[in-house]
Amino acid sequence: MHLSHAAALFGLLATHVDAAYPITPNTGGVNQFTGERPDRLEINGFASSGGPAWDLFVQCLSDLQKRPQTTIDSWYQIAGIHGRPYAAWDNVKKAAGAQAGGYCPHSSVLFPTWHRPYLQLLEQNIWQCAQTKAKSYPESTRNEYIAAAVTLRFPYWDWVAKAALPQSPTGRTTVNNPLFQYSFQSSSTTGPKTSDFPGNNAPQAYKNTVRSPRNGVSNHQTVNAALKRNAAYLHDTTYLILTQTDNYAEFSNNGYPGTIQGYGSIENPHGTIHNAVGGSGGHMSYLDYAGFDPIFFLHHTNVDRLVAIWQAIHPDSWVINQRDTFGTFSIPAGLQTDQTKLYPFVKDAAGTFYTSNDVRDTRSLGYTYPEIRPWGKTAQQNSNDVRAAIQKLYDPSNNLARRHNHKCSKRGGAGSINPSDRVGSLNPPPAAIVDGKYKQWSINLEVNKFALNSSFVLCFFMGAPASGPEEWLSDVNLIGSYPCMRPMGDDLPEDLKIYGTVP
Q1: Distance of CA 344 to CAs 79, 199, 308, 331, 489, Å?
Q2: Contacts of 329 (CB under 8 A, 6+ apart)
Q3: Where is the signal peptide (predicted)?
Q4: Do 315 and 383 form a contact (C-beta atoms < 8 A)?
Q5: What's the pLDDT at 325?
Q6: Confidence at residue 191, expressed as pLDDT on a 0 to 100 scale
Q7: 416 has pLDDT over 60
Q8: CA distance 165 to 223
Q9: Residue 422 has what pLDDT?
Q10: DSSP string spanning 186-243?
C-alpha cells in the first residue's frame, strides 16, 4: 500500500498526488474454500504465548510509532483521526456547519461501524510491516515468521473477563514497550504544545501518553483499582446488553432514547474503560487525545468484538435512521443512516467512502474473533453457537441468564436485596430469589452530556462514599460509574441527552 506515502503537516489541510489512502481487507490467511478467517486474539493470551506472531506484532507496533509525524500512516496521524488536532486526514476536510471535534461519531448510530475501518487502518499497517519484517529473519526461522505474519491480526483486551491492564511484554531483545505509551516527537520539554494542540489542556503537559498520572507519571496501580471496582458493572452490563438487548439502535449508542428502558448501550461500558484508564488528567479520559494511547486500540478492538458478537446473536437487526444532534468534523448534525459515509475512510484508490453496510460483516475485512465461527452454518446456527460461547465465557453458572428478557421497567419478581450484599454479584443473595424469580435493581438515567464545560463522571454509591472525589472510582461503596465524555470545542450544542443503565 502506501507505507512511504507522505502528507502535509497535520496542522494544515493535506493534499495528495494520488487519489486517496485506501483501507483494504487483509486477505492473508483467508481460506478461499471454507471462508475461514484468522482470529483477532486476546492480548493477555497472545502475549503469554509469545512466538513469532508476538515478536512481529511488538516490533511493527514500535516501528509504526517511530514513523515521522508528518507521514499519513504514522501513529501520530492515525491516532489524530479520532480527535485532535481537528485537521484533515487524507484530504477529507471539515464540513461546512460541522462542530469542532474529530472524525469519530459519539452518541451516534454510527459509533460501532465507524470504528471498524479505523481499526482496519491500523491493522493494515501492522500486517504490511510484518510481511516485510518476517522476510528479514535468518533462514533457519524465516519460514516460521513468514507463516505467522500472514495470519497476524490486531489483538483485543477483554476487560469483561478480566478488568485489569494487560501485562507488559517481555523478551530477549529490549525495546521500548509500544503498548505502555506513545512518545510525541516534539523538541519541547513540556509536551506537544504545537498548533495541533492549542490551549492548556492537561495532556499537553506530557511528552508521552499517561494513565491516571501522579506527579507526571502513569499510575497503573490506581488504574487497576478503578477497573477492579467497576468490574462487576462492566461484566454484568456488557453481558446483559449482549443477550437481552435486541434492537441495534438501543445497543449501538447512548444517544438513542430507547436505552432508558433497557440495559444501556455498548457505548456506556466503553466510556467507563476510557475514564478508569485515563483517570484524572490521563489521555484516555479526553476524547480529543485518547487515540494516542496505545491501549485505546486494544480497548476499541474489544468493543468491535462485542459488536460482532451482538450482531451474530441478533443477525437481523441493523443500523436504523437516527438524528445526531452533534455531528463530527466531516458530518454536520442531522439524520444518519446505514448509507452515511464513514469519513475519512475510503475503500479504493478512486476515493469511495465506506458506509456502515460495507463493514456489517467482519469477514469482509478479513478477520473474526474466537467466539464467532460462522462458516458452514446458517445464521440461526451461528447465533445459537455464539450465545452459548458467551454464556460459557461470561456466565458459566447461569446466574445472569435467570434475568427475564423484558425491559428493566417491566421486570418482575418478589423479594428484596440486602444492602450489604455486593451489587452486581454473580450469585444473587437467597432473599432475592422468591418462587424462582430474581428481583434485580437497576438505575436508569438520562443526562445532558454537555451540562458542564468539561467531561464529567456520575458515580453511584451504596451509602455515602468512604473516600474523597479523587478516589471515587475505586471507592469501596461504588456501585458503578457513568462517564459523560465531550470534545473540548467551544461551539457545542447546549443540550444532548444520553441514556444508560447501571445494574
Answers
A1: 13, 26, 22, 10, 20
A2: 86, 94, 95, 98, 99, 100, 101, 102, 103, 343
A3: 1-19
A4: yes
A5: 79
A6: 60
A7: no
A8: 8
A9: 35
A10: -S-SS---STTS-S--GGGG-SB--SS-BTTB--HHHHHHHHHHTHHHHHHHHHHHHH
Integer Cα distance of 285 and 486 in angstroms = 10
The set of residues, in sequence order, having a beta carbon less than 8 Å from that of 220 and lying 6+ positions away, is: 165, 211, 212
Dihedral sign computed on CA atoms, order 312, 316, 321, 325: negative
CB 248 within 8 A of CB 316: no
**d(C-alpha 459, C-alpha 187), whole Å:** 39
Count of other CB atoms within 10 angstroms of residue 87: 21
Sign of the alpha-carbon torsion through 250, 256, 260, 261: negative
Q: What band does 425 get if pLDDT is binned at 50, 70 and 90?
A: very low
The tens digit of pLDDT for each residue in 237-289 reads: 899 899 888 889 889 988 887 655 566 799 999 999 999 999 988 999 988 89
Is residue 291's pLDDT more than 80? yes
In the structure grid, which three cell numbers stand for residue 226, read together? 478503578
Per-residue confidence at 415, pLDDT binned at 50, 70, 90? Answer: very low
Q: What is the mean pLDDT of residues 452-478?
A: 85
Among 344, 346, 376, 352, which Cα is nearest to 363's?
376
Cell representation of residue 64? 509504526
Q: Is 494 exposed, middle or buried (0-12, 13-18, 19+ CB in 10 A)?
A: exposed
**68: amino acid identity, one letter:** P
For 302, list phi and psi in degrees, rounded to 5: -70, -40
Length of the chain: 503
pLDDT bin (cut points 50, 70, 90) of residue 404 is very low
**CA–CA distance, 247 with 326 (Å, rounded to integer):** 22
Provide CATH code, domain 43-158+219-502. 1.10.1280.10
Are 249 and 322 contacting, i.e. CB atoms less than 8 angstroms apart? Answer: yes
Pair type for strands 341-346 and 437-438: unpaired
User: E-strand spans in 120-160?
Assistant: none
Q: Which of 106, 36, 59 is closest to 377 using CA atoms?
A: 36
Q: Where are the domains of the chain?
A: 43-158+219-502
Query: Please, which pLDDT band fits residue 483 given cuts at 50, 70 and 90?
Result: confident
Confidence of residue 174 (pLDDT cuts 50, 70, 90): low
In whole angstroms, what is the distance from residue 360 CA to residue 317 CA?
11
Q: What is the mean pLDDT of residues 228-235?
A: 91
Task: Give the Cβ contact number of residue 128 at 10 Å.
Answer: 18
